[in-house]
Amino acid sequence: MPQVKKTRARPAPQSRPVRRAPASRPRKAQAGGWTMKLGAWAHAQIRQVEYDPRLRTAVTVVACSAVAAVFVGVMVASGMARDLGNGIAAGAAGASRAAGLSVQGLDVQAQGGHRLTDLQRREAAETSGLQRDDVMFSVSPRDVRDRLMSLPWVESVTVRRLWPDRVQILIEPRPAVAVWQKGGTLAFIDAAGRLLAPASTRQARGFAIVVGDGAPTAAPALFADLARQPVVARATEAAQRIGGRRWTLQLRSGGEVLLPETGQAAAIAQLAALEPTHGLLTRYPARLDLRVPGRLIIRQPAEAAASTPTGGV
């Protein structure tokens, strides 16, 4: 019987403790990390600009504009821009004058069939602001027109540059309809009662005269009422404003008409209706008193003088 060889059981190997790797600690951000990323981004942008013609042109324009803005800012701050601009303007003006492009003549004329007095021509020339040897390029017809329209007697203005060296001013004056007498002075007024220009005794001939304080302001209403009654208008030589309240008409026949404070238009119409049959305005001098509505009182000159208080009524 075969012998069984006994073997000794080997003890099981003991397990060794597993070493664990130490926990990883968070790395500190490197100081140059963002700088490197920014540099890489900038490099990429530069490469894009190099290969994109439109983007390259835009960047060039922006860069040039920035440089120019800095340059202009430095010049303005130091006063160089002003001096440079003045120098360029002076040089251009000198060149224009040398070429014969400067104002050598100013023509002031009336248009629309009107006439200008010598005084009006001189006033228009002075108000235009134009001087001899002014550069033609610097003359602004609009500015000259605006200055001339400030004159009370000017209705409309046209300004033209007649190259190479003349300026033409065409003025349509407001028509004068009467002369205002105050003290010893005379002045033209238009239909709206606006003062136009001084008048001499010779120039005032043929115009109706309005006299008294406030006469120009009240004259337009009187002119309108007379225009509706031509027979009365033709017979009227002057109108005197009494106390700032009413008018007295001086007739060419030597008589006078005392108009009321209210109802002036009706009184003038009444007078015009009586003229064809009675001839009160032209036949003989008389004082026609219409101050009481609906009544006409006729006085002869001597009677009228005796019944008129000093200073008028």
Protein architecture, described:
This protein has ten helices and twelve strands. It is α/β, with parallel strands linked by helices and about 325 residues long. Among the domains are: about 105-175, membrane protein fhac (Ubiquitin-like (UB roll), Roll); about 180-305, Cell division protein FtsQ/DivIB (Rossmann fold). It is elongated and about 170 Å long. The termini are far apart. The model has no long low-confidence stretch (mean pLDDT about 80).
Helix percentage range: 40-55%
Text of the CATH class of one domain: Alpha Beta
Strand-residue fraction? Answer: 15-25%
- Class from helix and strand fractions: alpha/beta
C-alpha Rg, in Å?
49 Å
- Sheet with the most strands: spatial strand order: 6-5-4-7-8-9-10-11-12
CATH topology group of one domain: Rossmann fold
Instruction: Estimate the mean pLDDT confidence.
Output: 80
Per the principal axes of the C-alpha atoms, what is the gross shape? Answer: elongated
